[in-house]
Write a sequence for this structure.
């Protein structure tokens, strides 16, 4: 039996419209990995003005749910190739059981495990009263996700599939086209690193903007500074010092 998630969708839209969602994630090989640390990261994001959190894995989602009173976009990363963001219905249901309000899942045009479909995973999420956020890499995938019943679409995977446009920064052209041509609300996400980029993403008409690594991965932020300084040093060297 299909559950009507319209009230949940309306509440979430009202909560996040025009605001910042922070992605608090750390994989097993990262120094901040751990549910307690991610819960503190989510608390810091909330204190800074985030209106929702994107989080990976049941342990992190549970810890964040106990720490902050914000909507949670949950996902479940399994593997590191092909479809690995909430690849199956079982992963999606685990995310909901952990306390997520919205389930983010890979909605790219690639084969899903167990022969599952985008329509099937969205239906399963709705049956549990959750909302479905389709992570896509192209415009056509966004259109397909809308047709399948996704509540939200995000270009999270633009540049991360072999057939999508490869850019160093946000794919503003894709965000703009998705906003212009889809009726489904668009959540801007993907390599957004600065307040100016976040502002530009919202100016396209996106519902909200997600920022992750630029806020919550200090090893990557540090690396950007570390790479920049030697360039300045090289410019200031005299000919004898070079």
């Amino acid at each position: 039996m299909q559950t009507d998630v319209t009230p949940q969708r309306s509440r979430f839209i009202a909560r996040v419209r025009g605001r910042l969602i922070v992605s608090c994630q750390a994989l097993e090989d990262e120094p901040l990995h751990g549910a307690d640390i991610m819960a503190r990261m989510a608390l810091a994001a909330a204190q800074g003005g985030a209106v929702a959190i994107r989080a990976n894995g049941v342990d992190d989602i549970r810890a964040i749910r106990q720490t902050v009173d914000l909507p949670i976009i949950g996902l479940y990363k399994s593997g590191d190739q092909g479809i690995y963001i909430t690849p199956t219905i079982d992963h999606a249901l685990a995310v909901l059981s952990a306390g997520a309000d919205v389930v983010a899942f890979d909605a790219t045009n690639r084969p899903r495990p167990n022969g599952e479909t985008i329509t099937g995973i969205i239906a399963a999420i709705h049956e549990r009263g959750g909302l479905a956020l389709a992570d896509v890499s192209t415009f056509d995938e966004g259109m397909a996700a809308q047709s399948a019943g996704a509540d939200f679409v995000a270009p999270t995977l633009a540049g991360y599939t072999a057939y999508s446009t490869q850019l160093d920064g946000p794919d503003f052209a894709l965000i703009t086209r998705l906003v212009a041509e889809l009726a489904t609300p668009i959540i801007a996400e993907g390599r957004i690193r600065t307040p100016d980029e976040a502002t530009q993403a919202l100016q396209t008409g996106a519902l909200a903007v997600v920022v992750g690594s630029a806020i919550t991965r200090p090893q990557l932020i540090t690396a950007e500074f570390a790479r920049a300084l030697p360039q300045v040093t090289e410019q200031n060297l005299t000919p004898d010092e070079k």
Notes: The mean pLDDT is 94. Residues 22 and 211 are 5 Å apart (CA to CA). The domain at 6-236 is CATH 3.20.20.70 (TIM Barrel).
